[in-house]
Amino acid sequence: MTDNFSRRDFLKLAGVGAATSAILTGCGPASRYVKREPYMEMPEYTYNGLSTYYATTCRECAAGCGLVVRTSQGRAIKTEGNANHPLNLGKTCARGQATLHGLYNPDRVTDPIQRKRGNASATAVDWDSATQTVADALKNNKPSEIAFLLGTTSDHLFDLVADLSAQTGINPPVRFGALSMFESRATLAKAAENLFGESGMPFFDLGGAQAVFSFGANFLETWLSPVSYTRGFAGLREALTKKRGTLVQFESRMSSTAGKADEWIPLVPGTEALVALAIGRLALELRGGPLPRAFSDIDPKSAASKSGIKLETLERYAEMFANSAGVLAIPGGAALGQTNGLAVAEAVLTLNAVADNFGKPGGVFFSPLAPNQAMYQRSASVKEMQDFTKKLADGKIKVLFVHGVNPVFELPAALEFKKALEGVEQVISFSTFPDETALESDYVFPDHHSLESWGYQRVATGSNQSALSGSQPVVSPFYNTRATADVLIAAAQLAGGKFAAALPFKDEVEFLQSKIAPLMSQSGGFFSAADLPTFMAYFQQYGGWWQTADSRTVPNTADIFNRSLKAPEAEFAGEGEFFFMPFVSPTLAEAGANKPWLQELPDPTTTVMWNTWVEINPETAHELGLEDDDVVKIISEAGELELPVYRYPAIRPDTIAIPFGQGHTAYGRYAEGRGANPTDLLGGHFNEAGDLAFAGMKVKIEKTGRKQPLSRLESLMGVYGVGLGEEH
Amino acid sequence: MAENTNIVHTHHNTEAHFREKHLMLDPLPRGQMNDMVMESMHTTSWKFWVVFAILSVIVAYSLFYSWGVMIAEGLGVAGVNRPSYWGIFLVNTVFWIGISHAGTFISAILRVFKAEFRRPFTRAAELMTTFGLVQAGFSVFMHMGRVWLAYWLMPYANQRMLWPNLHSPLTWDLLAITTYLLSSTMYLFLPLIPDLAMARDRSTGWRKTFYKTLALGFRGTEGEWAHLRNAMNIFAFAIIPVMFSVHTIVSWDFAAATRPGWNSSIFGPYFVIGALHSGMGAVIMVLAVVRATMKNMKYFIRPEHFDAIGKLMLIISMAWAYFFFNDYMVQWYGGDKWTHQLLHFHEAGPMGWMWFAMLFFNIAVPWAVLWNQKWRSTPWIVFIVGFFINIGMWFERYIIVPISLSINRMPFTWRLYEPGIEIPLGIGTLAFFILLYMGASKLVPLIPVWEVEEGQMAHEFKKFGRETVVSVSELE
Amino acid sequence: MIRPEEIKMSAEETGKWGMVMDQDICTGCQACVVACAMENNITFVGEEDSGYGRSMHWIRIERFWEGEYPEVKMTPNQPMLCQQCGSATCEPVCPAFATVHSQAEQLNLQVYNRCVGTRYCANNCPYQVRSFNWRDYERPEPLSNQFNPDVTVRRRGVMEKCTFCIQRIHKAQDKAKSEGREVVDGEFTTACAQACPASAITFGRVDDPESLVSQLAKKRGHGIKHLEELGTLPNVTYFKGG
Amino acid sequence: MIKRLFDWLRQPLGLIAVGITLLAVFSVAAYGISLTQQAPEQPVQFPHQTHVAFGIQCLYCHPGAAKGPSAGIPAQAKCWACHNQIAKTETSLLLAPLKQAVISGKPLEWVPVAQVPDFVQFNHRAHIAAGQNCENCHGDMSKQNVAENPQVFNMGFCLDCHKQVAGDDHEKLVKLVDCGTCHY
User: Residue D23 is part of which domain span?
Assistant: First the structure.
């Protein structure tokens, strides 16, 4: 089938023509030196100057939104949302739009390379020897000494490696992504398991709700599936068909979500569980009847005083829970990323039982599993990553394959992943970009960019429908890169024996087909076909396969009130007077920093471009004698960072916040040496579910006396009145 | 020949005292005066060449090289941004057009009103007009994003059905400035003809050819004089409305825009008077320098002239203060919230010091100094006053252009302006102005000798008993 | 005495294409900004220039603050782009007719190749939505492969601004014409509206009472047209909601 | 010394020498500039004439003209479909580059003849649909060997035709002379 792909040869041509001369000459007169290369063979559906559209899947995060990419003469011009796709219904986020700046990034890894670790220069190798290297690594090491570290995207590659591991005994692939760390996915899943006896990804039906109480879930920015939750939010607010829904956000720093909320409650960090339980108890008391066990231990008054929220406010919220339909409580993000995070998740999920919204519009569901998925899988928690890192450091792994993740950049400094790599004999990266982990690898065998790749992604949450989102190449590979799946299949064949038997495929596409073929027999699909080629053609044409019916499931809440819910105090590691609140930059996230247009995007809350900042309440800044753009040193138990100050009006005075996304030491010209990485401050403290207590730290601030102006879109004069002089 | 008789009371003044004080009463033989002017042109010290060389280097680097860089790199090397899309370029344009106003004002208005003290320095002033306009032209072309397409602003026949937009104040501006440049150059040239003829008759070599060409064969016949007088009269009258219109139209670049602080109906006269304010200051500076550095000039340019111009400056300063107050008052009293914000920003914003400096230089300094006849007759004092006024007027334009542009109706975009390459470019225009002037001082007679001679012929002493009086004859 | 309604009538434009912005659901996610940049070949300018007010965004999302902590509120996000005024202040001041009113599409055109860069239009735009090419900003190879061939790539010294994706308008019209029909409402939309995850941006014919924009405007009641008091007849309507 | 040189230059012969030198410098400069304006040579001296004489329609090789903005250059496969059946292809010197290109799989680099500046958005389809014939702009190909422009494609050329086509139809004229029709 890759033959098939090359036969399309829609890319043989350099799509020169008028467009390129436009590039070369801008608005000046057309150059007389333009030459045009015709197609060798014109693909039958292509006309010069007319665009061709291909459906594929966005891999900028793990959500799995469907894309339709406009191509013109073999070049990808624009990504649009796939209107048929059940997850995003034709919409995209900023990162999805900018994916082309990854494809055409000037700093991609263009050839397979070999390097001395940490050395930016490298020697190119050819793909034959690259494949041989992989084959040797598989063959010459004990299976238990071979490990795969994969990212959260490219589920097909995960499946391929999982198959390989199942049949050859090499270590099962470990998946990780910084987003899942900041989302606290493991905690959410664990809480669901504890409460409902079933693991799964909860689905929160924002669109159907009348009032939403979000405990730290920043669902408009990066949480789980921002595009679909934004649509849900629009549904919540849709005032034409129903009453305009309310949103209340509990978090210590105002995110975009809190900014859109009707009420933002900057509660004391760590008291979310108390607040949730207090609201629940007050609501149940209002309703009358016996108080269930879950809410019997909580004292609303002390919860109010501990959290810094007025009791009347809690009573007001309780009344909403007690008396109205469509009230929803969402746990997520920083609220769960504390030592008591699991308790928070359980308390907030239980609060939904008070609202009695499970399985109802505007309530809580389980997200449908993807069509070719047997059970809910989640990526590794940081605790699991710590164990993995320890294994590496102890020399128990001889060969490490890394794909789709950049652990050197993404993992907390306290885990010392980079140092752990020293214990690994051979590190092979499949990174498309020269990221920090690729720099610390012996080999980089670059994978295609996602728009040049085959694959599929399971839609984990955000859609009512069970969906498998399909990827296909929309342009032919720009550089001498090769699909990692193809490399592994070829290497397995070379290695022979059980490896060859584990991956008996001609190439990646054949493997894909083997995984997609079972869908043909499933009913209720968006399309069906009798034979595989037709089915594949539809799969490519529509960008995946999904069921038409709502396939969410309702959690079993029979026992939910009978559990004893605790609200332990959150512990904060480190000395210092400030709560530390790292948050994910919604425009950059873990892998956006090398895309220049994402760098130039103003942050939705601060409008800062091209840099990292530390948010400090203006009152606090005044007390510390800090102005905007003053560089301060932030010291945590794990490390320190120097950052310019942004006086942020909507953050607790005892909290500072730093966005995650910048601070790359490699990763191309647009990312390198820009801003700072807050994971350098993160220690190794976990909650009961094994998620990192990233919001469970305290830090110190020191002045440095230096200044570094932040590029802002907003006007300091117009928005804050800075420099306008005294008021009349 | 009609006779005006001015009675001058001579309590303790003698005729000799009069002579010393007034150029018109201190005639020298014609030949001697001509020689003095020629000598001042020909005597060039090494200092002149040093200054000339330094200025040439500055012009080459600061004006032409920097401009080349800016054309190649784009306006990013300058300090213009959103929202201050116009910066020092436009400040300098308005400033230089302002400078150019005084030349015409002094020459034409004083000629029309037959003010006798004008005679020795009309030429010096007119040269300023032309050279100032050259700098204004440089500044406005620098300002353009794609200056190589500047000819598109000119109406020329083409097959694209495209003409310049006559609705645009910039088009009016271009037409007005072009008209002014042409007419002021003509107005400079006409009175120059007899002096060129004089120089021709006293030169040899290439200079002879040069003057011969320019003098257009002027021999001084009665008929030639009559025609010349006619032409000069027509121009003197015609150029006054042109002058007023030019700066009014310049003001419309701002006043016609829908911006807070700009959209003001008084901008026309306010700009005209502002132009005269800085222009007079510049004239007096030039005269002080010319008098101090060029040979024989102390005879032609005397304290009486500084005294007379000083008086004019004081009056203009008062008029400027009146218009300033008028503009401010109406905007403050009747303006919307954006205008209020802007006015507040002018005074209390980060550049508030400039607003106060403007008032100090434009009002306080001239009012404090120029009331005193002795001070305003002292060249170095009025030089300083003129310098201050020019700084103040430059500040005024700076406040109107980049500072006012910082504030608009979209507070999200408010931003300060920080000049970049505009500074060398601005210095370049200043250096080029001085360079042109220095060059001209060696090529054309700075003193219109024939006008001085004419004036001296018209003045005579008469005795009424023991009283000495001066009588001035009407010459035409 | 002329009454305001008459002024509106006498102004030649009633508008053709228009937009409705629902500020209540705009989350400020910036998807529209990148979508616009990708569609229209807008250049990025780097850290220094973007911090100095030289970023080239054709659409920007404005937000202000109200009140003090803890009662502080973010004002509803306000996407600000060219309002395609019926009586635009940018148009008369251009000496070269580089920004002109399209009689056919009722849009404010910016003709890049005619622009000489006086920047008067940008000064006179009360919405401050025009961006100027201060430099030839570098887009190193192979980033330029992404350029949209339907949109001119601008160089230094040229003003630019939102075009309401006029290339898409033309394409839709061309397609409809080739199929012998009229353009249907919703058949195409601008890049920003297409990307917006919250569907806060709606684009369409404001002169067609049946179109979605007109319907939305009608349903939502009185929207705001920014700085309407200047008589610019903007074609973008804002709903603050709440 | 220098004075003597100047004196020599001032005499008629010297003046002529100066003139010739200036002329030479100017000509070289003009030639240099004209070089930058000359299109490179076509890889194949393609005889349009011959193809038209065989009765091949323009749209056979340039089908894009009827469908979209760009008329397009035919894919090599299209050329080869006929030419590999023609004996002359093997022997013709003229056709050697085509054969070479097909064998090597490297595309021929054609030099565009009919070009508009890149700030002009030209759409062939609309023009063909409006009943314009190819030769109205590109000239009669049955009389041309290697294609050459019969006229400069400048705005005057476009507008003349647009105005003529619109005639008295005001609405049409508005659309056809609108800046935004071609420039965006």
Answer: 2-36
A477's enclosing H/E stretch is none
Q: Are A709 and A591 found together in one domain?
A: yes
Residues A79, A17 within the same domain: yes
Are A133 and A443 in contact, with CB atoms under 8 Å apart? Answer: yes
DSSP for A697-711, please give it.
EEEEEEEEEEE-PPE
CATH says C4-239 is which class? alpha beta
Q: Are residues A214 and A297 in the same domain?
A: yes
CB-based contact C30 A587, cutoff 8 Å: yes
A453-476 pLDDT, tens digit per residue, is: 999 999 998 999 999 999 999 999
Q: Do A719 and B350 touch (CB under 8 A)?
A: no
Is the Cβ–Cβ distance between B454 and B475 less than 8 Å? Answer: yes
Model confidence, pTM:
0.91
The burial of B245, by beta-carbon neighbours within 10 Å (0-12 exposed, 13-18 middle, 19 or more buried), is given as: middle
Asked if A49's CB is within 8 angstroms of D69's CB, the reply is: yes
Q: A560 lies in a domain? A: no
A455 and A600 together in one domain: no
Domains in chain A, number: 4
What is the reported pLDDT for A347?
Answer: 94
Q: In a mutagenesis test of the B interface, which of D119, D159, D160 is the best target, namely the one with the most B β-carbons within 10 Å?
A: D159
- CATH label of the domain that carries residue A331: 3.40.228.10
Question: SS3 for A447?
Answer: coil
Residues 6+ apart with CB under 8 A from A73: A13, A15, A17, A19, A46, A48, A49
Q: Which residue has the tokens 């397009």?
A: D72
* Nearest CA-CA distance, residue A413 and chain B, Å: 38
List, in order of start, the domains of chain B with CATH numbers.
3-8+15-149+165-473 (1.20.1630.10)
Q: Does some domain include residue A573?
A: no
Chain A residues near residue C148 by CB distance under 8 angstroms:
77-78
Question: d(Cα A676, Cα A395) in Å, to the nearest integer?
Answer: 30
Residues A215 and A332 in one domain: yes
Q: Which chains touch D (3 or more CB pairs under 8 A)?
A: A, B, C
In the block, residue with structure tokens 């690259």: A130
Does pLDDT of D102 surpass 90? no
How large is the average pLDDT for residues A272-301? 91
Tell me the residue range of the domain where A24 lies. 2-103
DSSP secondary structure string for all residues of C48-113: HHHHTT----SSEEE--EES-TTS-EEPPPEEE-----TT-SHHHH-TTS-EEE-TTT--EEE-GG
Residue A108 lies in a domain: no
CA distance B165 to chain D (A): 15
Domain membership of residue D21 (yes or no) is yes
How high is the pLDDT of residue C219? 81
| CA nearest neighbour of A17 among C145, D129, C136, D104 | C145
- Flag if D110 and A27 touch (Cβ within 8 Å): no
Claim to verify: residue A322 and residue A453 sit in the same structural domain = no
- Closest CA relative to residue A79, chosen from C60, C149, C40, C195: C195
Instruction: Residue A15: give its domain's CATH number.
Output: 2.20.25.90
Task: Count CB-CB contacts under 10 A for residue D13.
Answer: 10
pLDDT in the model for residue C242 = 59
Please identify, among A103, A127, A153, the residue that sits at the C-terminal boundary of a domain: A103
User: What pLDDT sits at residue B382?
Assistant: 94
Q: What one-letter code names the amino acid at A367?
A: S
Same domain, A126 and A198: no
> Cα-flanking dihedrals φ and ψ of residue C58, to 5°?
-85, -20
Q: Which of A250-259, B13-22, B316-325, B383-392 has the lowest mean pLDDT?
A: B13-22
* Claim to verify: residue A168 and residue A186 sit in the same structural domain: no
How would you list the strands of the sheet with B3-6, edge to edge?
B3-6, B467-473, B459-464
Q: Which residue of B has its CA nearest to A607?
A: B412
Q: Convert the pLDDT of each residue in B289-312 to its tens digit.
A: 999 998 888 889 999 999 999 999
Pairing of strands A75-81, A66-72: antiparallel
